[in-house]
Amino acid sequence: MKITLAQLSSLQNFIWVDMRTQRAYDYGHIPGAMRMEGIVLPQDRPLVLYCRNGTESPALAAQLREAGYDAYFLEGGYFEWLRTELRKNAAAGDRAAQAEQSIRTRFHKKLFSKFARAIVTYDLIRPNDRIAVCISGGKDSMLMAKLFQEIKRHNKFAFELVFLVMDPGYSRENREIIERNAALLDIPITVFETDIFENVLSIEKSPCYICARMRRGNLYAGAQALGCNKIALGHHYDDVIETILMGMLYGGQVQTMMPRLNSTNFKGMQLIRPMYFIREEDIIAWRDANGLRFIECACRFTESQQTDPNRLGKRQKVKQLIRSLRAEDPEIEQNIFKSVENVNLSTVLAYKGADGVRCSVLDEQ
C-alpha cells in the first residue's frame, strides 16, 4: 500500500525500512531507519519501506502484506524524503553560514588545516590561477567548494574560482538535489550538460573507468572554455590509499592518485586534489554536524545497485578490506599512504620511466 510523506502523521509507531545497499545507507538514510538486509521484520508494528525513488519498494510491500505484515511503501522513495528535507533546511535559516563557521572552529584542524597543508605541500595554487572547482553533488566536492571559498576569503594572493557542475545525464531528481544543496550552501554553480551516461550505459566491461575518463575530458574542456587553467577534484586521503591497493590487487602495478597532474590532452591545463590529506570520516562528521544531505554517485550504474547487495564494486571491496585491516592495526592506512613515497628502486624487479618504457633493475646491476 502506498503512503506519502504527508500521510505519515496518521500512521502510529511505524518503522522505516531501507531497501538499499549498505553503501547507499551509509551515505545517507532516513533517521531511525533499519536496513532490510539481515533483519527479522516485526509483525506487530507498521512498516514503511523505501528504495531509491519508489520504483522497487511497491512489489516487496505487496509481498509483505500478503504474508501478514502491515507494510507500506513510501511514494517517491528516499529521494522524495531528501527533497522535502532540503526544502525544510532552506527555510530554517542560514545553513551556509553555519557550515562555514564550523570549518573555522570545530573542523578547522581536521578539514581546513589539512586543505591548506596540501595546497602548500604540493604547490597547488599559484597567483593568477583560475580554478574550476568541479562539483559532482556529493559530500566531498561540496565540502571542497566551501573550503575553497574559505581559503579565498584569506586572499593571500590573487586567484579566481569557478564552481563547475557537469551534468553527464543526471536524473531530474539528482539534478534538483545538486542545485538545491548549492543554493543552500551559497555556492554559485555554473552547469553544463553532456550525454556521457547515455553513452556508457550499455558498456559491460569497466563502465566506471570509461565514464570517469569521459567525465575528466569534458571537465577539462568545460573549464578551459571558461578561461580556467586548473580543475580541482574532491578526492580525499581514503581515495588515495584505496587507489594504491586497487592498483596492486586489480591492476598488477604500483601507482597512486597524484595530488597534481598536468593534462596530456589539454595544453596548459592541470588537475589538482587539495583534499589529499583529509579523511573521509571527518568529511562525514562535518556533513552530519551541519545536518547536510548529499547524493551518492549519481550515475545510472550506481542507481542499478541501490537494492542489490551482491553488486559491489572493486573500490568498495578494497574499502572493506582496509577497514578490516585497520581493526587489527591502526597504522595500516598511514603505511599504505607512505608506501608510494618510500619506493626503493633497488628492491623492485622493474619500473616504468617517465616515458612509459619498462626498465629492469636487474639489467642495471
Report on the architecture of this protein:
With about 375 residues, the protein is α/β, with parallel strands linked by helices. It has two domains: about 80 residues, Rhodanese-like domain (Oxidized Rhodanese, domain 1, 3-Layer(aba) Sandwich), CATH 3.40.250; about 210 residues, Rossmann fold (3-Layer(aba) Sandwich), CATH 3.40.50.620. The protein is built from 15 helices and 13 strands. Strands 8-7-6-9-11-10 form a six-stranded mixed sheet, sandwiched between helices. Helix 3 runs parallel beside helix 7, helix 10 crosses helix 13 and helix 10 crosses helix 14. The longest helix is centred in the middle third of the chain and has 19 residues. It is globular, with a radius of gyration of 23 Å. The model has no long low-confidence stretch (mean pLDDT about 90).
Give structural attributes:
2 domains, Rossmann fold, 13 strands, Oxidized Rhodanese, domain 1, six-stranded mixed sheet, about 375 residues, alpha/beta, about 45% helix
CATH H-level superfamily of the largest domain: HUPs
| Helix/sheet category | alpha/beta
| Portion in helices | 40-55%
Strand proportion: 5-15%
Instruction: Order the strands across the largest sheet as they lie in space.
Output: 8-7-6-9-11-10
**Total number of distinct structural domains:** 2
What distance lies between the first and last C-alpha atoms, to the nearest angstrom?
A: 74 Å
Mean pLDDT: 89
CATH fold field value of the largest domain: Rossmann fold
CATH class of the largest domain: Alpha Beta
